[in-house]
Amino acid sequence: MRLLKKLLIWFASGLAVLVSAFVALHTYYYFTPVQLSDEAKQLLAETAPMAQLTDNGYRLIGLLAPEGVDPVAYGRCSHAIAKKYGEAYWRELEKTREDDIGRSAEDFRRRSDEAQQTCSQGKPLLPAPPRSKSADRIRPGVDFARFASAGDHTIAAVYVDRWTAVLEGGVRGTEPDIAMTVVPDYTTALSVERARLLTFAQNWLRAKSVEEYAKSFEAFESVIPKLTQFADGVMLDTMVANSIISQHLLGLQALVAREPKLDSTLAERMQRSVSSVETLPRSLGKAIVAEVQISKSFFERVSTAGFGITPNPLVNAMERLAFDRSDTLNLGAMALRDTQKAALSTQPFNFHETRAGLVFKNVGCPWLGELALVCAALERNVVGRILAGTSSPQYAEYINRTHDVRNLAAATRLTIEARQRGLTGEAVSIFVTNAPPSMRDVFSGNPFSYDAQTGKLTVELKAKSTLLGEKSYALSL
């Protein structure tokens, strides 16, 4: 009994010492905050223009505005209502210190209802455009021409005109505060682009002369370059553009592969259009670093409102003491800049080998084994460092997806060149083996695998795709 008493005293004393050390150290950290680094300042200044919505950003939000209502005006009105609810959310979180998911869902529903009632001028929103059944079959291994040739793929002009205005409207920007974001309805973009691809395919399949082939491609020629521009600067837009571009490349490759010989002038035009895909890694990098504005907004909010984990005042106090906004932004800037550079390369991206990754890897002094948690509790900005470390690895998937699109573009360029030369039989195998760098696997630099017996070109994937497959896909050549 006496031994147990001593152990309890020792344990209580040790805990008291640890709590005292935690409070003392984090109070010191709190009153001696880390200063914002030059790198973070530069990144924030560089991405500042993306931290606010432009008229074209409002136009994207308002794609389904009622007929007779300006999409820009609808988008601006909808965003203003989202900001009102967002400010109320942060005020409530600061007061209660607890994030009520049920309340948040209800607020989102009310926000949507108010936007429709207030911004629609009493008119119903446009319904989402119908999806073509044939469009669902745009994927490797499916007879694209067979499905594209059947049915009417036209879509109402209002959808086409509005989406075209967005594509040609320039920079859109974004709302950096996640509580005030209005996510656009991308179904309009997807439906319009599917209809565009299938209409092009129908016209191509009906063509009988060089002039008719060229005319059918004319309406499709500028689409991929415009989509690569749309991908510039906003992460969600970039991923949507990647998906649409993949479908367009699959369709174009399938149509060209059917032709025994392709006109050289038309082939050159196709190559220019497809080559615009090479700008996607730069666009992805720009979208990656722009997310520092989202981090900045979020960290500013939680530094006063807390993380909403629990209303317990002691936990709230410890949260604030263990979080340094500037240090977290510095780490975030390091991570985003290194990831931006990685996006330009096809080499495997390992976040833990970046500057910020190495900091995150050593949070909590892992070499101390069971005492690591004690060390973590005493470190400066342990909450922020964990936040910075857990949010960055997701970008590896985005990088791989983007280069997978480039790989599909390389295979499409290869197909165009082979058809321009009118190659058949063994000549195709020889050409694939000796293809120029722009027509090879972008990851390895090696020629694509080609099976002369089946006439199939195999393209490897780095990221699992609902459109292209899990590990690889085959294209007719």
Q: What Rg do the Cα atoms give?
A: 27 Å
Strand order of the largest sheet: 1-2-3
Number of helices: 21
- Main sheet: strands, sense, barrel: 3 strands, antiparallel
Helix content: 55-70%
Give the DSSP E fraction (strand runs of 2 or more residues): under 5%
How many beta-strand runs? 3
Q: List unreliable stretches of 5+ residues.
A: none
- Give me the secondary-structure category: mainly alpha
Average pLDDT taken over every residue = 85
**Shape from CA axes?**
globular
- Tell me the distance between the termini: 84 Å
What is the N-to-C order of secondary-structure elements (H for helix, E for strand)? HHHHHHHHHHHHHHHHHHHHHEEE
How would you describe this structure to a colleague?
This protein is mainly α and 477 residues long. The protein is built from 21 helices and three strands. It has a three-stranded antiparallel beta sheet. A hairpin with a 4-residue loop joins strand 1 and strand 2. The longest helix is centred in the first third of the chain and has 30 residues. The relative contact order is 0.10.
In short:
By secondary structure, this protein is an all-alpha fold. The chain has 21 helices and three strands.
Characteristic key phrases:
mainly alpha, 477 residues, globular
List the helices and strands and how they pair.
Blueprint: H1 2-31, H2 38-47, H3 55-61, H4 71-96, H5 101-119, H6 144-148, H7 157-167, H8 187-206, H9 210-218, H10 223-230, H11 235-257, H12 264-275, H13 280-290, H14 292-305, H15 313-321, H16 325-343, H17 355-361, H18 372-378, H19 382-391, H20 395-421, H21 426-433, E1 449-451, E2 456-460, E3 472-476
Antiparallel strand pairs: 1-2, 2-3
